[in-house]
Write a structure and sequence with these properties.
Layout: H1 10-16, H2 23-38, H3 42-46, H4 49-54, H5 58-65, H6 71-83, E1 97-101, E2 110-114, H7 116-131, E3 147-150, E4 158-159, E5 164-166, H8 168-174, E6 184-185, H9 188-191, H10 196-206, E7 212-217, H11 219-233, E8 247-251, H12 256-263, E9 271-278, E10 281-285, E11 294-296, E12 302-308, E13 338-344, E14 351-361, E15 366-372, H13 386-400, E16 406-414, E17 417-425, H14 432-446, H15 448-453, E18 458-466, H16 468-477, H17 493-504
Parallel strand pairs: 1-5, 3-6, 3-7, 7-8, 8-9, 17-18
Antiparallel strand pairs: 1-2, 4-5, 9-10, 10-11, 11-15, 12-13, 13-14, 14-15, 16-17
Helix pairs in contact: 10-11, 13-14
Length: 505
């Protein structure tokens, strides 16, 4: 039996566009809605959106006429015009807000357009997620009406020439609906603070005065905040301060590596709710207890295409070919890795977001994030995904009864062949050689290609154990603290160079 039952009036259910029919038909309507809204923009005129709308099969015609984009290409061809103040470029009117996003592998900030239509769609999805709590059981109802501590970016946005820029979580918090303000913590004053360390200190100082039911954010920063509160007030666990804390809403990275560390800070179990909110839009959310994955948002403000993540569509560096095979939702299969293309109500068109997912329940449109197109290791054909690594770390952590909240891996030449080098955060006492052997064994079990290559060209696996603080300090040095920033699971390019310099220092 559900913890509470909400009977929505038909008009509200229709306004929220709660799922009533197939995901494929919902996606058809979303694409048409996006095309109609943007048909008079410069992008819509060039790629003949009117013609696509009149086609017998708009989906197929859309793929024929509109090319695929990564960030660099769409910025160079289109989005730079919006930053220069032009309107009606890829979406109607002038873009007033941009989410600054550098992902987890690149140094330069990306400017992702944020429109009122996108924020409206995100808010509707957030309401749907809140309403989905009626599908949960055995959790305290009273916690639902308590405070929501949202550990996001600063709402004090950078004012540029004709627009504002900042973290998406900061933009979202700045525009929080009036009815939600009584629940919202840390409040407007603290939320404006740009210095993440100062913001954490302010939150810790106020923590004893709040009655928190939900805590929301990236797992690493949530854990750090709870540890600071426990230390400041000399209590045994976070529930000594917040007895009604019942929900942890998290996203951005796999939660499993953090779970053991979290549980040490609790006085009673939490209900964990996963979300998939990217700078480009609210993509998916967990809508029921013990779900296999997150439900894809198919009926709101994003049209999805799925590119099989294989050697046919991607090169060895993780770059997508110019004309990939792109499937719509009706043609995907469970258990296969796909890169996502988004078309959104902020003027992203067939845009490669860089994440890889797989469907774990196609009927329910439930997905899990398996990694990023750039964050995988395949030096010699081992095809090691972040999903494989997360599972191996989780299994070994449970077997050895240690907490491994962070890790990163690099691939590099070794003698005449190659090796993987792991850097693992663990504040528990652990034998690094045993840890290395165990992770290697689990990866062989999880990935046949890895097992084969460990007998040939992938000659060695090395592992170093570092304090968790080392990982956090590197993020501080890089200016990637708080909000949606998370440590990359695979290091390449400039980030790898900076990591090696950091370790040498």
């Amino acid at each position: 039996m559900a913890i509470f039952d909400i009977q929505l009036p038909p008009g509200i259910a229709k306004a929220l566009r709660l799922p009533q029919n197939s995901a494929s038909r919902q996606q058809d309507r979303v694409l048409r809605k996006l095309l109609r809204k943007a048909r008079f923009t410069k992008f819509g005129q060039k790629y003949r959106f009117d013609e696509i709308l009149m086609a017998k099969n708009p989906n197929a015609r859309f793929q024929e006429l509109v090319p695929t984009y990564n960030y660099n290409r769409i910025y160079d061809e289109w989005w730079h015009l919006t930053l220069e103040g032009q309107q009606d470029v890829c979406w109607p009117k002038k873009i007033k807000y941009y989410a600054l996003s550098s992902g987890t592998s690149e140094s330069a900030s990306k400017y992702i357009p944020i429109t009122s239509d996108l924020l409206k769609g995100n808010r509707i999805v957030m309401i749907k997620q809140l309403l989905s709590l009626r599908n949960y059981t055995d959790i305290p109802v009273k916690s639902i009406g308590k405070g929501w501590l949202m550990l996001g970016g600063s709402t004090a946005l950078q004012k540029e020439s004709g627009y504002y820029a900042g973290d998406l979580s900061g933009i979202t918090a700045k525009k929080v609906p009036f009815w939600f303000q009584r629940f919202y913590k840390p409040g407007k004053k603290i939320a404006r603070e740009r210095d993440w360390n100062k913001k954490l200190e302010d939150i810790v100082s106020k923590a004893k005065d709040w009655d928190i039911g939900f805590i929301v954010g990236v797992p690493a920063w949530i854990q750090m905040c709870m540890e600071m509160i426990i230390e400041r007030y000399g209590v045994k666990n976070i529930h000594d301060i917040w007895p009604n804390l019942a929900f942890c809403v998290h996203g951005g990275v796999s939660f499993e590596p953090y779970k053991k560390g979290f549980e040490k800070l609790l006085g009673k179990p939490l209900t964990y709710i996963e979300t998939y909110l990217a700078s480009e839009g609210f993509i998916a959310y967990q809508d029921r207890q013990h779900a296999k994955g997150m439900r894809l948002v198919t009926n709101e403000h994003i049209f999805f295409e799925f590119v099989p993540f294989d050697h046919v569509n991607f090169d060895s560096a993780g770059d997508m070919i110019s004309n990939p095979q792109a499937l719509t939702i009706k043609d995907v299969e469970e258990g296969k890795d796909y890169a996502i293309l988004l078309s959104t109500s902020a003027g992203a068109w067939r845009y490669l977001i860089g994440d890889t997912i797989k469907f774990v329940d196609k009927k329910r449109c439930e997905i899990v994030i398996t990694g990023r197109t750039k964050h995988f290791l395949s030096l010699v054909g081992e095809h090691l995904s972040v999903d494989n690594m997360n599972k191996a770390v989780q299994m070994v952590g449970e077997e050895l009864n240690v907490s491994i909240p962070e890790y990163t891996v690099i691939g590099e030449p070794y003698e005449t062949f190659f090796c993987h080098r792991w850097y693992v955060a663990c504040d528990d006492t652990v034998d690094k050689d045993l840890l290395c052997t165990k992770i290697d064994e689990k990866l062989k079990q999880l990935n046949d290609d890895y097992a084969v290559e460990r007998k040939s060209a992938l000659k060695e696996v090395f592992l170093e154990v570092l304090p968790e603080e080392s990982f956090m300090e590197f993020m501080r040095v890089k200016g990637k603290v708080g909000g949606q920033h998370k440590f990359p699971r695979v290091l390449k390019g400039k980030m790898l160079e900076d990591w090696k310099k950091f370790l040498n220092q």
